[in-house]
Amino acid sequence: MQDFINNLPKVAKDKHNENKKFFAKLKKKPPKNLDYVMQELHKKEFKRTDCLECANCCKTTGPLFTDKDIDRVSKHFRMKPQQFISNYLEIDEDNDYVLQSVPCTFLGVDNYCSIYDVRPKACREFPHTDRKKFQQISNLTLKNVAICPAAFNIVEEMKNRIK
Q: What is the mean pLDDT of residues 107-130?
């Protein structure tokens, strides 16, 4: 698994143009059953993929924190939201709250998340491959295939399924 994770950025880069063309076609004319197909592929992939073996998303990128996320996580730590923000977050170029550093502060050496039950929405939904109107997030998916082996596998299977 670790070899695949290490090679993933290069493999994803090699497939980038192919994937970009595929998503452009998908955006123009999405199949009527796209959401159903994506949910099926997502379920199938995550039956065989254990995120705890990987945690590459937590090691290489940080999630956005919404106001609701900040309130929920700060309450978990019994902190005021502003204290949580100053301890852990910063504002990025898009004016969103993100972690001050990666790997994620809340990721343990065993790949377990110390705030799993209250984690941000972006973490709960990652890699977003079971999202409705999937074709609308193709740019995000193109980024995620370079981070998440499951997202990579789902997109590869998707290209085989949807011609």
A: 97
pTM of the predicted protein model: 0.93
Tell me what the mean pLDDT of segment 109-126 comes to: 97
**Distance in Å from the first CA to the final CA of the chain:** 29
Bridge partners for 65 per DSSP: 97
41 phi and psi angles, rounded to 5 deg: -65, -40
How is residue 31 written in tokens? 């199949």
Quick one: tokens of 144?
């995620």
Q: Where are the beta strands (DSSP E) in 32-158?
A: 64-65, 89-91, 97-99
The answer for 128, left when phi > 0, alpha when psi is -120 to 50, beta otherwise, is: left
Helices (H) and strands (E) in the chain, counts: 9, 3
Q: How many CA atoms lie within 13 A of 23 on its CB side?
A: 20
C-alpha 84, offset from chain centre: 23
CB neighbour list of residue 133: distance below 8 Å, 6 or more residues apart: 35
